[in-house]
Amino acid sequence: MIEVGNIKHTPKEYVLWVYDSKAIKPKASIAMPDDMVVSNEVMGEHYIQFSFDYPTREFFKRADYINYNGIKYRLREDCKPKEVNTQLYKYELKFEASEMFFLDCVMFYTMQGYKEVEWVLYGKAQQFLEIAADNISNYLNEEWTVGIIEPTDLQNITFNSQNVFDGLTDIAEAFKAEWYVDYELKTINLVYQRESSDIVTLRREVSLIDIQKANESEEDYCTRLFAFGSTRNIPKNYRQISDDEVIDAIVQKKLRLPAEVGDYVDAFPGMNRLDIIERVKIFEDIYPKRIGNVTSLRQVEKTDENGDPFIIYYIKDAGLQFKSEYILANETLMLQFGNNSWLAGRDFELSYSDKTDEFEIIVITEGDNYIPNEILKPKIGDEYVLYGFDISLVGDQYIPEAEKELEDAAREYLKTIATDTATYTCIVNPVFRLENDLDLQIGQRVRMVSMIFESGEKLSRVYGYRKYPITAKDEYVVGNVMDYKRLARIENSIEGNKKEADVQYLEAMKAVNGNLKNIKALNYLRIALENETMIDKGLLLTTLIRLGAVVGDEWKEVAGINGAAIEPDDVVAYFGGPLDDAAEGKTPIGFKVDGSGWLANQNIIWDALGNLLLSGKFESNKNGNRIEIDPEDRSLKFINSIGQTLIHMYFEEDEGDDGEKFFLPRILLNHFGWKTGDEPAYVLDITGYEIRFLDNSTGYMSYLNPENVGFFNREDQSQPSFSASRYYIPNDNGEGSYNLEVSMNGLPSSDPNQSGRLFRNGKALNIS
Predict the structure, then answer these.
(1) How far is CA 742 from the centre of its chain?
(2) Residue 34 CB neighbours (<10 A)
(3) Number of neighbouring beta carbons within 10 Å of residue 509
């Protein structure tokens, strides 16, 4: 272990101990250098950095760590010291908090068993943070979970190869909130603003040397806003331009503010000319729109050039009188489904038929899937919006409504950018800090007192800090407005309205911790969500019942009744597991619409005609002599009343000299005699090719096969033995004959004086 600085005379609270990721003992002890800084900011960098000189080349590797104020900080990069001279190296170490390692893992979509880098989700903050926690847990090999969550609304967020740190920042921005970690509980948290309830006063010339203002958003600030909407659904003759009106383009026509409002909205009335700061803002999501509903639906099955099936859907809206001539020149008629649709947020090209009054939805492909399909499909009652047509021909109320929407959005935008977004750097008086132990954390509410404020003071909170433990020249960044920073920004390339197939139902599934993976089970749930539960006195009508209980903090589903079962192969009831498993036939018990089903983990199966198939272990009876079918070794056994296997029939796999495998039937007939143990006295072993008789008391084995017969002692090869076999001898003309080969061991070497007995006299074989 190396020592840097005067360790013996340095108080232990000012000594940093550096460990590598696997060692128990430290690899270095370092007296805190004067330049040591602890830096932290809301959704920003959090690290400890310092430098020192040392006479030899030492190795500090990624994942080496220090513990400081109860937090573990690790190196994210190997330290490469600078060579000052041949006898001196300069080291600069930057130890980073756990959340900084979120920069090194990808924000994969992990729900439903997927692992996608490009994805879109429409859901609540809980769902997004659970995905982030899954990725963090997998990467760090630690159990990270979701902690405090304040936002309750739904958001649509696109991800494209982001790291988890920036992914969390995207989530925070979408929900207008801030994320942070709890190191002790290992949780990811999302709140509208981190702040404590008590207030600490920071007074210039007392606790502070100076207060410096920095407004990072002044370039967006304006007092007069020229606002425009989208070009969608704008008629050819929309708002003839007068000489004094502001236009945004010569060719394109965009939605404009109401005529009575004028070209712009102001932040304040009665401004002088020099008070006016002009900006232009385009609101692309605001345009004249009619929200329609699907009232009729038709589908036609077709096949593509590869023979793969797909479905074309045709829809009608009884409340819309439409003609193909309404489609704008050089425009494509498009449709976007509303939030109540399985296709929510998706845009589709349309073809319209004046003869049938139907809109044909042009299918799109995502990977190997056609959309719409039997799961992602339109349904009666779906909301939708058309664009790419002259909406004034459908109704004259839509354009004024859109112009008013644009005005409201412009005024709200002005309020937002007029908010004080300034941050203030408070430079601490080192003497005051040491005497009063001033040590503020992120979120601490403060009252800054200085003449730079109109009222002499300003309430805010600590947004970030840079603390210097040795010199006490601390700096606090104070501000209320969130600053969404991406530490490794990657531009999105996915269209914002693309969604995963089941994003509309994640909230319902999360209510019971479902995380359905099976597409059929997902369809059951969707059908159930389309329907309602009705109670009429003692009559209960509903579509899907999922039964279970909360075990610990997790819902465990154990059974269900499925009224969404329509097809013959659909599961109508299941027991012993969740709906997802039942749809795949993996629950211990299941019943289908056509009358088929299974019990005992499919060891008992019957089809729609009642044909029965049994598998698993079978016993003829529990007591006395019994017959047993054992699925573990695929065998049939005859077992006596004391547990001895008298007959054992099973399959045996063998391999020839050429490597080819073949199977043999094998039957063991065990004779125990008066023995009560598991080892039989005699065994007759039949394989279909050979018969063997084993005498376990003497070690002798006799055998008979198509080419050999004999016996020998397995335990003592010197004991008497006999074998006879036939072998083939070819002759010169290519033909041959079989001869007999006999081998004997243990013949008597003298005449036994018993008629007919063989004995060996030297090399001669004699008969007595």
Answers:
(1) 72
(2) 12
(3) 20
User: Which token pair is 18?
Assistant: 């550096």
Task: Name the DSSP letter for residue 678.
Answer: S
Let me know: does 464 contact 444? Beta carbons within 8 Å.
Answer: no
Rounded to an integer, what distance in angstroms lies between the CA atom of residue 78 and that of residue 81? Answer: 10
Helix (H) or strand (E) holding 371: strand 369-371
Instruction: Map residue 339 onto helix, strand or coil.
Output: coil
Q: What angle do CA 681, 684, 690 make, to 5 degrees?
A: 145
**Phi, psi at residue 101, to the nearest 5°?**
-75, -10
Q: Tens digit of pLDDT for each residue in 79-126?
A: 999 999 888 999 999 999 999 999 999 999 887 677 788 888 888 999
Q: How wide is the angle at C-alpha 418 spanned by C-alphas 413 and 420, nearest 5°?
A: 130
The pairing of strands 278-282 and 224-228 is parallel
Residue with tokens 């007959």: 647
* DSSP class per residue in 574-631: EESS-HHHHHTT-SSEEEETTS-EEETTTTEEE-TT--EEE-S-EES-SSSSEEEEET
Round to whole Å and give the CA distance between 346 and 65: 47
pLDDT tens figures, 307-361 = 889 999 999 999 999 999 999 988 899 999 988 888 887 899 999 999 999 999 9
Structure tokens at 323: 């003609």
Taking the C-alpha atoms of residue 285 and residue 298, their distance in angstroms, rounded to an integer, is 30
Rounded CA-CA distance 334/286 in Å is 16
| Longest Cα separation, the chain | 145
